[in-house]
């Protein structure tokens, strides 16, 4: 990966010698936990320990669909060292729970609906004993035929008491009879991407004297986890406490109730601390994945390439349980036409249950799948019209004030044309030399089997969009407290640091507002007011907004006595580099002197403007804000072997405002790389519902050798007036856009349709050459 990948490159970049802020907003402040993580001292959940610790193991179903005839735990309970065995009969509270839709049992009781579904859990003195005892639980199954094709789910027998159809959204916008002079069609399939967290999924449950329990988890939504756990345990919410341990990064929800809830049940039953550190196989079996999706599209355009109508059918495979599939479907349907002006749109979207592994929240859910499809359609349209792929896109891009197919007006900045022009005009990388010493540049890597003469270069484009925060009436709110004493500021907010940089941002906000250098962010637990889940950029917006409001309230408390003393308003005073000065220079003092040993604090909330659910025609103001991205991909394809090497990805993105340049560049780079995996390597194979090769050998993540040069060629800083600081979320939209751009480049290199992600080698082979 080139050194440029770690820097923010923009056309307006300042000269290197220009002074760079060392603190506050706009500075590349390093992450507070960076040193601990690099030195190996960061306290991850897998490192936790407690006196009298027991170890847990979970028994999971080997079948994707079966009727449970009996569960015999006798042998497991009698094994030396086993302290407890729990099944569905030991769940004292709600036995069916879930994120989004409550339809997932804590333990399967009558029917197994997916491979890896938990049936029992064991606590023992040693982890090996726990695993052996779990294996000793005897379950008698009547194996049933699994329903693994989502198209068959419509006609199949109900897999769940709630039926197989989770949600149907029929979007109707404009004139159904409108037609274009040019029509292109396509059928597309998006595979199952796993979030594949590098850090072990682990947790520790500790019983409390009051009959409650504390759960130490790498949670990204501690209050949501607390509520779920309390309902399952039959306890009051204040009897369950979630303490967030070190989260080793999260590109999806890290809330796997299939081991969290058994942990708590075992701790309550044994009266001892219980720990579980999931193996990689257990992670693949337990957590949710990106929705596999089937998409059918028909685009109508006039002779000039202007879109007239888009028709689409979108089918999301939710797996065995609904989870957050309703939210993913809403995003897929709403953004099915992409960041283009489409006067007439008719989209049918469905999310259905199958016996495949459950799907859930993964960065850019819904939007990523449709982006790959509508961008393929734009390539087909360009080819049929004889236009450059970038040009046909430019003729249709939306701007601020345009209307989504949902009827919602785009009121936020939407500089889509500017983004596309930036990547289109960025210089292309040089062609590789046809010399032995440069053979490592060939697709396939060092000592690859390819021949230079079989390599074709392709250039492709992707335009993507995602919504920020929750949607369709979700109540987004966060609370923060800022306290200052003796020159030290403390921030208390239950926003979990998942790698998105919230802890660093909170420090920068307080530094900027109060002029205090030393800022500490308190570790998160559920004794604090809720801040919501750490996804869709919500903590930058909502939690960052709450911190800013609290800091400004403290600022007012600090400045009011001085303003009163000198007969001026607080607006005439400013804080810079730890000094308070007035507009006329009469007043000049330090923040420390003004504090005079006092303790100042304030608590504030941030709640964005409300949204509304989509109606029966898919219409409604469902989203708070939208962010956009353009990516140009350059690939080399060996057309004999079908191997693909991504040479460069040029990125332009509207970010509202750059709050931390280095951190922003890292987030964009990470998002692009995750999209690279979805485009080329990551596909969790589930033949007949069985997860094949649940490990990081069978599931191929992109490595540093696979990562291309990532050129951040432009960041458009047009502030969103309704967002705190004017900033937009940056992580998800590169994930959404890069797979589409890579597929577009492979199409350009090969002339093949490339209608499936990840791209299979056979899809890039050109015969007859």
Question: How would you describe what is shown here?
Answer:
This is Molybdopterin-dependent oxidoreductase. InterPro entries: Ald_Oxase/Xan_DH_a/b (IPR000674), Ald_Oxase/Xan_DH_a/b_sf (IPR036856), Ald_Oxase/xanthine_DH-like (IPR016208), AldOxase/xan_DH_MoCoBD1 (IPR008274), AldOxase/xan_DH_MoCoBD2 (IPR046867), AldOxase/xan_DH_Mopterin-bd_sf (IPR037165). Pfam families: Ald_Xan_dh_C (PF01315), MoCoBD_1 (PF02738), MoCoBD_2 (PF20256). Residues 1-13 have a biased composition (Low complexity). It comes from Streptomyces erythrogriseus. With 769 residues, the protein is α+β, with helices and mostly antiparallel strands. Helix content is 24%, strand content 26%. The chain contains 15 helices and 29 strands. The strands form seven sheets. The chain has a seven-stranded mixed sheet with strand order 3-7-1-14-11-12-13. Strand 27, helix 14 and strand 28 (709-716) form a beta-alpha-beta unit. The longest helix has 28 residues, at 538-565. Mean pLDDT is 89; it is low at 1-20.
In short:
This protein is α+β, with helices and mostly antiparallel strands and 769 residues long. Helices cover 24% and strands 26% of the residues. Helix 11 runs parallel beside helix 12 (538-565).
Task: Kindly state the percentage of residues in helix.
Answer: 10-25%
Radius of gyration: 27 Å
Cα(first) to Cα(last) distance is 32 Å
Q: β content, as a range?
A: 25-35%
Please give the number of β-strands: 29
Strand order of the largest sheet: 3-7-1-14-11-12-13
Number of helices: 15
> What is the mean pLDDT?
89
Largest sheet: 7 strands, mixed
Low-confidence stretches: 1-20
Specify the structural class: alpha+beta
Protein name: Molybdopterin-dependent oxidoreductase
Pfam family, one: Ald_Xan_dh_C
Organism: Streptomyces erythrogriseus
InterPro entries: Ald_Oxase/Xan_DH_a/b, Ald_Oxase/Xan_DH_a/b_sf, Ald_Oxase/xanthine_DH-like, AldOxase/xan_DH_MoCoBD1, AldOxase/xan_DH_MoCoBD2, AldOxase/xan_DH_Mopterin-bd_sf
